[in-house]
Amino acid sequence: MKGINKNLILAIASMGIFVEALDIAIVNLAIPEIEKDFGLTSQSSYQLQSLYILTYGCFLILGGKFSDFFGRKKVFLWGTGIFLFTSLGAGLSHTFNTLLFFRVVQGLGAALLMPAAFSIVTYYFTEPKERSKAIAVFSSFAAIGSASGLSVGGIITSFLGWSWVFLINVPVLIVIIGIAFFMMEDDKESEARFPDIPSGIALVVAMLSLTHITELISDPISNYIGILICLVVVVLSSTYLYSRLKKQSTPLLDLGIFSLTSVRKGNLLFILLGAFFTGYLFLMSFLVQKTFNYSAAQSGFLMMPFNIISVLVARFLLPVIVHKLSSKSIATFGMLGMFTGAICLILAVQLHNLIFLLAGGSFIAGIGMTLCFTGFSVIAMEEVPQEQLGVGGSLTNTAYFIGGGMGLPIFTLFMDKELGVINSKPIIVLAVLALVSIFILNRPRLTLPIFSSKEGSTPH
């Protein structure tokens, strides 16, 4: 790595994950304009988010394996290139089906980009303290991107049109690709075998079916046949996947990685974080536009302070506390911020008070998400061996999107059916998720079944 500017590499990887994280949330406040242009119902336009998240989450494990097999630089460039192409295609779409197609493929690009970017960071930064600081910077960009999405999406939609929610990615991605191509080391020949595609398909089918069940339970009586079919598919595909992972000499995912305490705890925390923050984004958009009656542009400007706080925390607070506090302490403070934010949102609804609404968003998106994502990332990767960094990074994000995909339909069960009316029940669920996360964080050991590819084996 002689002559390599590691800080520049970190900046490029972080910008890649920032754009990817931004795109998850940025569409929310643009959806009303998209509905208006294409004459859609909310049920149809919601697919823009759900299918993107599902595609992203379902292919992350394969994305991590491709990163390990083909090389982190190649897969990073592939993923960024696909993201660039689909951003351009989505922004220039003239029909909803075309937009939906590019949005789905964009999720595939994100599934390649993210684990490769994470693997790049952990490859170039090897010394423990240096790696922790680099992961903190990288994770903070992801958190800032997620927190900025609602604000940026509302402002761009109002002043430039919804197309620019996607087109804004293009010049940034061109710069990222150019610098990555010339500055990163070429990938060395990998000793890993080609990923097990049948296992990947089984994993995707199981996750899609499981997520679909959470959507159907909103009306279990009418949807009982669909729920039963999905349950059968989940059982069959999971059984096939488990059998194949146990038998393959080089499985898609070494089950022994779950023998690591950090992996078990970190991924469970990411599931809860995904459910919490995806639910927050949905509820916050609904609160600001429906309950408090702000336009998309007004909502964007209203949420801008959250982004500023997130940037300040990432820029000035994280570099200090990452050297003074353990990852568990950082994550615990983050979840305390999430809990405080949820309480503020409950008060905002009960009192119809804008100050509490802004305080809730500041604690959750400005402080809590940045600290939680950083702390959880370090916790999850503490014990992962270098040869499994790609898969380890993709596991945490798969867990995050499993939480988001399953959590959002559950939140809607607690909402009032009348348009524009929201009660405190779904926000109370946010507070409960935060408390459960704090409890798990501070348990000395996480008691879960230990899986391994062979009896008694652990990853090495």
Automatic annotation (TrEMBL):
It is found in: Membrane. Coiled coil: none annotated. One of its GO terms (molecular function) is transmembrane transporter activity. This is MFS transporter. GO terms for cellular component: membrane. It comes from the Bacteria. The keyword Transmembrane helix applies. It comes from Chitinophaga silvatica. The chain crosses the membrane at residues 7-31, 46-63, 75-94, 100-125, 134-156, 162-184, 196-218, 224-242, 268-288, 300-318, 330-349, 355-379, 391-415, 427-444. InterPro entries: MFS, MFS_dom, MFS_trans_sf, Sugar_transporter_CS.
